[in-house]
């Protein structure tokens, strides 16, 4: 055994690189299962019905959805494509929630024909379109309205004014408009209005942000009941549960954040004497992020006037987050884990963009060509945001567990990238 070589799920990354090539998304299947089980077990209440929805936008494929299904979680999707993958994975449609701010007529038709459980209605125009589609289809569906509570959480701060111009949902200050949407939905026999959905941000490190969200929503629900006789059975509080990326990150323990949410919901329900009977959350990133890593092979290195670059065989095409919003990551030379980190370098990708930088100024051993570099916590929004920029193929996805590995998404070949190209006459 090479003590310098990193193993994931009992499998050497050197063997994975040889068998599956690089770049490569590697998921520790046991870590995913552990997080799924924790959310399922910790988000339980004697006073309220609870449901945990996996936010599939973080990462979705049939193998992952099989794990979600096995652990008894539900699912949220935000497009016809994500819904189709759920159907292909034989996910129970009654446990699927359809989000999004601009669902098409075809997507709503598709959702109802699949027998989806719940549509999360984003705005007034979508409300009217859902009514139209529901009348035509005759299929029954539950509905939640997405509202904007005016609470925005960002890292260690949260404020109660900044989210009023979000592209998602309707501000809770527009009670008359919200009441009209509820009445419009409730007038259709096969649409069953259940309650409201909100989401206050990502990478939330302060549980008090959830307290502020719940208190604001409960007051709104009470006022809506008093003024418009609208009863709310369910609240979906969204996600935002943090993952660990670098040493600066201090995620709230799941036991703490789950108990905070449930205790606050119970207290506020009692305070306002509400008929609320169900609470939902939507973790995505926090389930898969830390379970996933991306393995690269080092190519050339280059010394400039002020920095040294280490080039890898992937980059912004398989991880757009650093270029998109300066996301921070940690890394190691995976074949030299026990060597001294003696050199400050910048990890750069091979895309033809100056902004194709994965990590600025990180300490590593002296990197050599063909070393293996592992970038940690890429399990969320890596594969799902990958592109073919510069005609680079998307990497394969491999699940590892108990010393065994299985490819769950194949590497995209040059031939794959040309499959959709054609020269067909459009009949106008």
Walkthrough of the structure:
By secondary structure, the protein is α/β, with parallel strands linked by helices. The chain folds into two domains: 7-26 and 291-418, Lyase, Ornithine Decarboxylase, Chain A, domain 1 (Beta Barrel); 43-285, TIM Barrel, CATH 3.20.20. The chain contains twelve helices and 22 strands. The protein has helices spanning 13-20, 29-42, 62-70, 80-88, 105-114, 124-137, 175-186, 208-228, 254-272, 285-288, 321-325, 414-418; strands spanning 7-8, 11-12, 24-28, 49-55, 74-77, 96-98, 118-121, 141-148, 152-154, 157-159, 170-171, 191-197, 234-236, 278-281, 292-303, 308-312, 331-333, 343-348, 357-364, 372-376, 396-401, 404-409. Strands 3, 15, 16, 17, 18, 19, 20, 21 and 22 form a nine-stranded mixed beta sheet that branches. Strand 4, helix 3 and strand 5 form a beta-alpha-beta unit. Helix 5 packs across helix 6 (124-137), helix 6 packs parallel to helix 7 and helix 8 (208-228) runs parallel beside helix 9. It is globular. Residues 155-162 have low confidence and may be disordered. It is an enzyme of class 4 (lyase). Belongs to the Orn/Lys/Arg decarboxylase class-II family. LysA subfamily.
């Amino acid at each position: 055994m090479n003590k310098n070589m990193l193993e994931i799920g009992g499998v050497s990354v050197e063997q994975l690189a040889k068998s599956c090539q690089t770049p490569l998304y590697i998921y520790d299947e046991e870590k995913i299962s552990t997080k799924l089980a924790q959310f399922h077990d910790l988000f339980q209440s004697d006073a309220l019905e609870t449901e945990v929805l996996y936010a599939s936008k973080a990462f979705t494929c049939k193998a992952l959805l099989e794990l979600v299904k096995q652990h008894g979680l539900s699912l949220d999707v935000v497009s016809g494509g994500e819904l189709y993958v759920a159907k292909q994975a034989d996910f129970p449609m009654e446990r699927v929630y359809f989000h999004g701010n601009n669902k098409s007529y075809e997507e709503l038709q598709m959702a109802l024909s699949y027998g989806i459980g719940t549509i999360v209605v984003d705005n007034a125009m979508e409300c009217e379109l859902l009514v139209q589609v529901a009348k035509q289809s005759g299929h029954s569906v539950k509905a939640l309205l997405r509202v904007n509570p005016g609470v925005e959480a960002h890292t260690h701060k949260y404020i109660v004014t900044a989210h009023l111009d979000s592209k998602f949902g309707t501000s809770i200050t527009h009670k008359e408009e919200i009441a009209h949407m509820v009445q419009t939905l409730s007038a259709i026999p096969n649409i069953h209005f259940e309650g409201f959905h909100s989401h206050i941000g990502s990478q939330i490190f302060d549980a008090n942000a959830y307290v502020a969200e719940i208190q604001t929503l409960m007051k709104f629900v009470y006022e809506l009941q008093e003024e418009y006789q609208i009863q709310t059975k369910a609240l979906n509080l969204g996600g935002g549960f943090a993952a660990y990326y670098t040493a600066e990150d201090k995620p709230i323990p799941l036991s703490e954040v789950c108990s905070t949410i449930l205790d606050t919901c119970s207290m506020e329900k009692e305070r306002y004497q509400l008929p609320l009977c169900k609470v939902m959350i939507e973790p995505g990133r926090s389930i898969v992020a830390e379970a996933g890593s991306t393995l690269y092979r080092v190519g050339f290195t280059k010394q400039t006037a002020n920095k040294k670059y280490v080039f890898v065989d992937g980059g912004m095409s398989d991880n757009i987050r650093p270029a998109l919003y300066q996301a921070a990551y940690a890394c190691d030379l995976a074949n030299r884990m026990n060597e001294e980190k003696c050199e400050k370098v910048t990890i750069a990708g091979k895309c033809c963009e100056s902004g194709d930088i994965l990590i600025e100024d990180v300490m590593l051993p002296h990197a050599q060509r063909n070393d293996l570099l592992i970038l940690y916590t890429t399990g969320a929004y890596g594969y799902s945001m990958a592109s073919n920029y510069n005609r680079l193929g998307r990497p394969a996805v491999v699940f590892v567990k108990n010393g065994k590995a299985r490819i769950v998404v194949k590497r995209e070949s040059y031939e794959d990238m040309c499959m959709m190209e054609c020269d067909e006459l459009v009949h106008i």
